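PROTOCOL LOG
Step 1. Enter all chains and additional molecules of the complex.
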Amino acid sequence: MVEGYSPNTFEEALKILNEEDVIIYAGGTDLMVKNKNITSLLPKFTKDLLYVGDLNELKEIKEDDNKIKIGAACTLSSLLRVESIPEVLKEAIQNIASPAIRNMGTIGGNICNASPAGDTLPILYALEAKLKLVSINSSREVNINDFIVGSGKIILKDNEMLESILIEKVKFNKIYYQKVGARKACAISKTSFVALAEVSNQKIIDIRIAIGSVGPKIVRVKEAEDILIGRELKDIENLMSEVKKVYSEKIIPINDQRSTATYRKTVVLRLIQFFLQYKVVFEHSVKSEK
Amino acid sequence: MNKTITLKINNKIIKTEENCTKRLLDFLREDMDITGPKEGCGEGECGTCAVIIDKDLVNSCLVTIGSVEGKEILTVEGLKGTKQFDVLEKCFAEAGAVQCGFCTPGMIMAAQALLSKIQKPTEDDVRDGISGNLCRCTGYNMIINAILMAAKRGEGLW
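Step 2. Run joint prediction.
Step 3. Record the structure below.
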């Protein structure tokens, strides 16, 4: 029968992780569903559990002038209450599941579960988050894009744990997030879309678009972003078909119980067009006329 | 390993030797005979197993007892007898927010968690507060009315 370890410190947790074959349990919201059993029988865990959800070291949020560091076991709800967390990340979290799930689920869990439909992931990809992975005798920082290698697949070694998420404070004046789900609450995304752009002097200075649930990993197409960076707003309309063609080649969704490949692709391409035409060009020109 | 787990359930300290991976929902219903929390979907979608743990609403089907060691767990049974419960009970009855009653313990806990965080909720706040709780009878409007009514009548209680 499986058992559980309740370490008192992060140090102790790393020691157990190094010596024993365990499953890291933070909020449990994904693990408990994956290991669901018949009512009143124990969940089908095959390894001992390492409870890390209450470790203070993993619940800290620190910031300096350039960066925010979020402890991996911070619950999704707790992030909603912190001023320094980027608004677009809060918007995505507000759309995850329900209050009860957000009270348990952690940001580290959302990352390590590495679901293509993980709702914090597109935001973290767009913000180019770095992850600090720690073991008893090592510590390294990796880009979130390198950390997740496929659906549910991550490069975390057996004795490593995700300690914190590092987000650089970046400024964007055009921010757009859209989750497409079957209903308002408790919906797993058909697709989720985030676009950030910095526009000044009628030019696109920077743009980042990340899309969830349209492939085994979050999709971000640098090639398409590069077409847009440095361009003047009046040229965007002419570039539209080229940009959409690049995205169209890189977005290869699947059919599943939640949606179809055709629907997902159509919606995403329209969201890209909407963001560029409406949020970037139109809203900007209305603003500058005022 | 294989140790005693201490929990505080409805203001009583409980010690148990049960396996730490046991679901809190099963522990409450089978070991404690606390049957307010019910099992609907068993995967966090329906909210009928909702309890309050350290002031936060939580689905008891999605937590193991080992993960809530040392925490304070409140079920609808523990809420009974408080002034807040009296107000919620009367408003739910008056608004017609209870039909078959299966979702009601979860709804009451969701309402309690919401009102302890937001004393004067808007309709949108209430809709978000119960967004993880399914009800197949009322169509939700009566429940929303009941919670808004409770917020007004119970002003100052939360």
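Step 4. Note key features.
The mean pLDDT of chain A is 96.
The CA atoms of residues 110 and 118 of chain A lie 6 Å apart.
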